[in-house]
Amino acid sequence: MPAPQPDGTQSRPSFPDNAVPGPPRMPGGVARPLTRMLGATLGRVAAAGRRMRDWLASYDVAIGKRALDLMALGLTAFVFLTLNRRFYWSPIGFDEEFFVWGGWSIKKGLAPYRDFLEYKPPMLFLTHYFALALFGLKDAGYRVFFAAFPLMSVLALQVALVARGVSRFFATAVMVGFVALFVNPAWHDTGLTDSESIGISYYLLGLACFLWEGRFIKLTTLLGGVFMASCVFSKEPFAPAVGFTWLTMFWLRGRGAPSRESSKLYAKYSLAGVGLLIAALCVYLVPTGAIKGYARLLFGGYRKMFRNSATSYCVAFGVVDADPSGGMVLDDWRRMRSAFLKEDILGYLLPIALPGAVFTFRRSKMLFAATGLALLGALAAPTMSRCMWPHYFSMAMSGIIFVLVVGVDSMKTVLNRASRATRRTITAAALLLVGLHAWPALYHERDALYTRKPWDEPQPELLAFIKANTAPSDRIFTTGAPLLYAMADRLSAVRESTFIDPILGSLDGATDKEKLRPIYLQLVKNKPKVVFLDAIYEERKPRFNEAVMKPFLTEFKYKQINDRLYLRP
């Protein structure tokens, strides 16, 4: 320390001229612990920095992977939405008018088969009800639902494939290939609103849920059962394909290899989902009495209308021969080959399907056999009514997509073990294959300009006439498509919706008047305020008009407004 001065102060320390004073030195007992503490703190900070750097690096990788996932899903969505534009903007089609009317009738509190009748299963009407409840009838707003619903099902299946280990862009190639087949005007009248399109959308959702074996596996398996049952109750001929698909999943699930535990879980929760959907339908159909009408259709009505050559309206239409050479089965096969099983329709999918079939066989012969049965069940679906209208072939597509899915799932292990160059080459080839097939339609739709035409009234100013001459409680009647009821916001005077002569063979009775008497009695009971004799398919209604309309209009002295419009006095 500096020496004390005489005045009691301490002298300032002196330094050499070139010296720089440093900080005061602390006693050794205090300095050493502080140094150790500082070093430890700096070490912890450095370690935390390294962990943060590693985390950021992994996070960048995760972001990159998610970006690629979104890009793959976006590519599929782009193809779907582009090809669907023609359906979304097209005018409301004839069959579509019946389905929309069914959904509107449920909104009005009517029960299917009891209060309104169209020869379709209940999920068709309920799905249209949900579409109308969400988006409305005005300007065909419900079509938003029928764009989003099938798109969601396609993307859900793609996500399930990627989650099972199929590379994201190979899964994209599979789904784009399916979209190019499904979203094709050759297989639809006007849009994706028909029962076959609704059924295939439920099928894809059910398949996606069955394939998912990650978190919430019990819930997704349960939902898979619900969606598969919804598929069948949208169009009953899906049943064989759905049944064999369900069976095949016993060999496909199990996180790599089927096990007793995975099979028990799958059987328990998938069947619970089926039971849940059936129970929900019964809760709706039984109290209303609608279940009786549906049962009559399911266990007799359909066969009489479609399969029985003596009463089939397909035969009456001239669509199929009553007694084809070689029998019905051979005739169905010939028609299937000429309309759907053709190289120019399905050939572009063979380079993916055939290797997949080989790997499926090598993986499990039982899996291969069950997949083949699912395909045969799907191909049989369009033949069950014998009419084989073009939109029926959408049901056969359930087998096509299932074969592709099982195939790529069986190939994934070998592909994932291949070199990066091999994987990229195969994936690029698959994308190029389906892209070249889809490109002409994509190119056309990309530049197409659409505007939705307003609904064409069957006769000019018909809605205005109905509004001016009826009250909301009045009933009306048309011999044309039943969408008129929804557009006019008036209930029908009868529950039936189809009045063409070719269906008379499937109705009970010896004469036309006996067959059509139930309709006549409903008209007498409800006495529609307005009757409209629609000109559409007029050549198919002479027997109906003679047996029902002429006597009814005459008996109750309806006032003739014009050659097709009548008003109750």
What can you tell me about this protein's structure?
With 569 residues, the chain is an all-alpha fold. It folds into 2 domains: 72-447, no CATH class; 462-567, no CATH class. The protein has 21 helices and 5 strands. It has a 5-stranded mixed β-sheet with strand order 2-1-3-5-4.
Give a quick summary of the entry:
The chain has 569 residues and is mostly helical. The chain has 21 helices and five strands.
Structural class: mainly alpha
**Residue-averaged pLDDT:** 89
Helix and strand succession? HHHHHHHHHHHHHHHHHHEHEHEHEE
What is the beta-strand fraction?
under 5%
Number of helices: 21
The count of β-strands is 5
Question: What's the N-to-C terminus distance?
Answer: 127 Å
The general outline is elongated
Q: Tell me the number of structural domains.
A: 2
Q: Please compute the radius of gyration using only Cα atoms.
A: 35 Å
Would you spell out the secondary-structure blueprint of this structure?
Elements: H1 28-89, H2 94-107, H3 122-135, H4 145-163, H5 168-182, H6 195-211, H7 217-232, H8 239-252, H9 260-288, H10 290-307, H11 313-317, H12 328-339, H13 343-346, H14 350-363, H15 365-380, H16 393-417, H17 420-447, H18 462-469, E1 475-478, H19 483-488, E2 491-492, H20 512-526, E3 530-532, H21 542-555, E4 559-560, E5 565-567
Helix pairs in contact: 1-4, 1-5, 1-17, 2-3, 4-5, 4-6, 5-16, 5-17, 6-7, 6-8, 6-16, 7-9, 8-15, 14-15, 14-16, 15-16, 20-21
